[in-house]
Design goal:
Layout lengths: L31 H13 L2 H11 L2 H23 L9 H22 L5 H8 L2 H12 L6 H21 L8 H27 L1 H24 L8 H28 L2 H5 L4 H14 L5 H19 L4
């Protein structure tokens, strides 16, 4: 007499599924998305202050392109060491969008802008990035956040503007630097949305590595051209800032950021970046001696609450 099977027609067997974070990624709980996104945001929060330091003594074009060259060499070494397969040709146009957005556009434009505006002021404009990324994701994917999400995102955006204004960065008159920063935000939002989607097919670190390698010839040419007039010269603070931008802001930070977006939902994970302005002002206070009073602390708490509400909001 045989024992009855434990799997019946009424109770079908559960088959394993491929995780969404890439072909070689292990499945992670949904809560890992915002946590990995936050890790990436912490890395990115140093970008504006260190860019501000670097462009004091180095040409903005050299800073924006040179950091991509260093990151591109590191990416090529990682891809060679891991023998990562080349992406299919059908994905190359989408990788080029990542190149335009986060490898070339954002670094070059912010480097030029921060010659004109303080890092704290730049944080006001870059504070638009979470909302812009959410819009890009909605246009690009089937994610449909509810009204609670958009309300929390709008409140978070308003809180970011108030926070930076209270911190002493001010809003000021709109100038060329602000236009450059807004263009950088639009390109970064597109690069984030497309990179998050590609990370579900290629993997997070593979996506940024291949984008950096694709951009390497162009960014190397720009770097050489920017240094042709005079040899780049900076003190230890300038070169350390440049090194951080190349290794962390341009390379390692995207390992966590794109992985978090890949786990998703991308609209929710993108709102973690609301806290970036809070962190940026904190680093500006430490690096540049900017004063932080009680009003700033309250505004920062509001930003964090709005970010948490957006992350927890329901997304269809």
């Amino acid at each position: 007499m045989t024992e009855p099977s434990s799997t019946t027609a009424a109770e079908p067997a559960v088959l394993p599924t491929r995780p969404s974070g890439g072909p070689s990624a292990k499945a992670l709980p949904a809560a890992a998305g915002p946590l990995l996104g936050l890790l990436g945001v912490v890395v990115f929060s140093f970008t504006l202050p260190f860019t501000r330091i670097a462009v004091r003594t180095l040409d903005p074009l050299f800073v924006g392109a040179g950091r991509a060259v260093v990151a591109g060499v590191l990416a090529a070494a990682v891809l060679a060491a891991t023998r990562a397969p080349r992406p299919p040709l059908r994905l190359v146009p989408r990788l080029l969008l990542v190149v335009v957005g986060v490898v070339a556009g954002f670094p070059l434009l912010t480097s030029a802008a921060l010659r004109e505006v303080p890092a704290a002021h730049g944080a006001v404009v870059v504070g638009v990035l979470p909302a812009a990324t959410a819009v890009a994701v909605v246009l690009r994917t089937r994610e449909r956040p509810g009204t609670g999400f958009w309300a929390a995102s709008a409140a978070g955006l308003a809180a970011v503007v108030a926070f930076v204004a209270l911190s002493g960065g001010g809003l000021g008159d709109v100038g060329a630097g602000d236009a450059l920063l807004l263009a950088a935000v639009v390109l970064a939002a597109l690069g984030y949305a497309e990179g998050g989607l590609l990370s579900r097919e290629l993997g997070a670190w593979q996506t940024i590595c291949w984008a950096l390698v694709l951009a390497l010839p162009l960014m190397a040419a720009i770097t050489v051209a920017s240094a042709s007039g005079q040899r780049p010269s900076a003190g230890w603070a300038g070169w350390l800032s440049f090194g951080y931008l190349a290794v962390f802001s341009m390379f390692l930070g995207f390992f966590a950021w794109y992985r978090g977006l890949a786990i998703g939902p991308m609209t929710r994970v993108s709102q973690v970046q609301l806290v970036q302005s809070v962190l940026t002002i904190a680093w500006c206070a430490l690096l540049f001696g900017e004063h932080v009073d009680a009003a700033v602390v309250v505004a920062a708490a509001v930003v964090l609450v709005c970010a948490a509400a957006a992350v927890r909001a329901r997304v269809r």
